[in-house]
Design a protein that fits this description.
The protein is of the alpha/beta class. Helix content is about 35%, strand content about 20%. The chain contains 14 helices and 20 strands. The longest helix is centred in the C-terminal third of the chain and has 26 residues. Bound molecules: S-adenosyl-L-homocysteine, iron/sulfur cluster (SF4) and FE3-S4 cluster (F3S). Iron/sulfur cluster binds next to helix 5.
């Protein structure tokens, strides 16, 4: 799920301009949002859209696969040239590569002046000021408990669909994964702090909240001294906040997917989106065991069957790794069979990438790269087949869409998402921004859908579940 975004707004402010480029997952995107708020509030800086204009350039990095990590160094080199080696410009590296590779960054890119880990982004303003006054490199890649959330300023305006981080870190230590080393120990934010932030997001424009964490169903944030919360309770409480119309969460882990969360998919809870991202990684129990995933395919399928009893045809997306050390053609065929059984909606699939320091990187890996590539191609063809079938089944259906903005291609087209996270573009004006509307899907495009507006917000709310029924037929 790695993606790349850059700060987009251009405004004029007093104390200089910053530019942030983000690699990696939604946690990184949200950290970049928070760093932007902090620079505006604490340093009176403004965002800009080009590295040439910036006084502070931040690369928020991802190290989930080797390619993502190497991209950091090529990007830093390119920026160095683009800013024509101006020494008063501060280049900072944040995120998961920063967390693990500070020495390597200073060695390979000596012009970098700040290295800051994911858990200390609230100290960015101080590090920047110290760097400017002392002209010395600054580094903070420590893991202080969960203090970052108490020290980050809140935004004055929220996106229609806003992220809300409910936990940080990961204790699962899947044998292939770098995240527990880069993000540290799993810690949940207090229940009431999360609810306060959700209310603030609603007051400032959010209509959809995406609860974020590496394993959100492990969430245990304290309600008070004696009672721990859980994800289902969080969903239920946020559902009652006026203004919040949709709730999503990512990422959940099959191992801790308990009955309370399955019950949250009760048909009556209309605010919890009709979609679930549940990474499976492999269809083979042998490989899952070697990956240290702590569940079997039978358990994974049982969760899905229970969920689809509550919500027939619930669209499910997933993450899959191919070419894990020792994966045979037979293991791979079990993954293909799982894809046929679940008929995943959109999914992410990757070739296994050994990460330094993880247990899997010590395993003998006899699967040739060509074979791994062939498996990925075969898998992606199959995943695309089902994703296309689901999109085609939506053509002709009327679905609810949360209008998030104007379409990238035309200012007469609106863009929004269906409950199962499909992008829909349709003619309409800005008065619909932030509303849930009814759209009849007219066409399936390469990566999105096209539609026609049927009705405004009120009717869409009343008929929230019609698209859920139509999807049931496709899966
Ligand atoms: N916490 C989430 C996933 C976080 S990382 C979970 O447990 O599901 C996002 C995805 O990157 C993972 O689901 C996995 O499919 C992929 N990934 C992680 N480490 C990888 C590696 N070493 N090589 C290839 N893909 C990897
Ligand atoms: Fe990585 Fe596993 Fe933690 Fe997900 S659960 S972040 S894959 S270690
Ligand atoms: Fe990448 Fe770190 Fe997220 S490794 S996927 S940015 S948690």
């Amino acid at each position: 799920m790695t993606m790349t975004t850059a700060s987009t707004q251009q405004t004029t402010n007093t104390a200089g301009l910053y530019y942030i480029k983000t690699h990696g997952c939604q946690m990184n995107e949200e950290d970049s949002n928070k760093m932007g708020n902090l620079l505006q509030e604490q340093c009176q800086m403004s965002p800009c859209t080009s590295v040439q204009d910036a006084d502070l350039i931040i690369l928020n990095t991802c190290s989930i696969r080797e390619k993502a990590q190497e991209k950091v160094f090529s990007e830093l080199g390119r920026w160095r040239k683009e800013i024509k080696c101006k020494d008063d410009v501060v280049i900072a590296v944040a995120g998961c590569v920063a967390s693990q590779e500070a020495d390597e960054i200073f060695k390979r890119a000596p012009f970098v002046k700040i290295v800051i880990g994911p858990q200390t982004i609230h100290r960015l303003g101080d590090l920047y000021r110290q760097c400017k006054s002392s002209k010395k490199r600054q580094i903070d890649v420590s893991f202080p408990a969960i203090e970052k959330f108490d020290h980050l300023p809140q935004n004055t305006e929220s996106a229609v669909s806003s992220f809300l981080t409910i936990m940080e870190g990961c204790n699962k230590f899947c044998s292939y994964c770098i995240v527990p080393y880069t993000r540290g120990e799993e810690i949940s934010r207090d229940f009431k702090n999360v609810i306060e932030e959700a209310k603030h997001l609603a007051r400032t424009g959010a209509r959809e909240i995406v609860l974020l964490g590496q394993n959100v169903n492990d969430y245990y944030g304290k309600i008070d001294e004696t009672i721990d919360g859980n994800l289902a309770l969080l969903i239920q409480t946020i559902s009652q906040i006026p203004g919040i119309e949709r709730i999503r969460f990512t990422t959940s882990h099959p191992q801790a997917f308990d009955d309370t969360l399955i019950d949250a998919y009760d048909a009556r809870n209309t605010k919890l989106c009709n979609h679930l991202h549940l990474p499976v990684q492999s269809g083979s129990n042998r490989i899952l065991k070697n990956m240290k995933r702590d569940y079997t395919i039978e358990k994974y399928l049982e969760i899905i069957d229970q969920l689809r009893c509550k919500r027939p045809g619930l669209p499910i997306s997933t993450d899959i790794i191919v070419g894990f050390p020792g994966e045979t053609e037979d293991d791979f065929q079990q993954t293909m069979a799982l894809v046929d059984r679940v008929k995943f909606d959109s999914s992410f699939s990757f070739i296994y990438s050994p990460r330094p320091g993880t247990p899997a990187s010590e395993l003998v890996d006899e699967v040739p790269l060509e074979e791994k590539k062939s498996r990925l191609a075969r898998l992606q063809t199959r995943l695309k087949y089902y994703a296309d079938q689901i999109a085609l089944s939506m053509v002709g259906q009327t679905v609810t869409v949360l209008v998030e903005g104007m379409s990238k291609k035309s200012n007469r087209q609106l863009s929004g998402r269906t409950e199962n996270n499909r992008i829909v573009n349709f003619p309409g004006d800005a008065s619909f921004l932030g509303q849930i509307v009814h759209v009849t899907i007219t066409e399936k495009c390469q990566n999105s859908l096209r539609g026609r507006l049927v009705s405004g917000a009120d009717q869409a709310q009343a008929n929230h579940s019609t698209d859920r029924q139509s999807l049931a037929a496709a899966t």
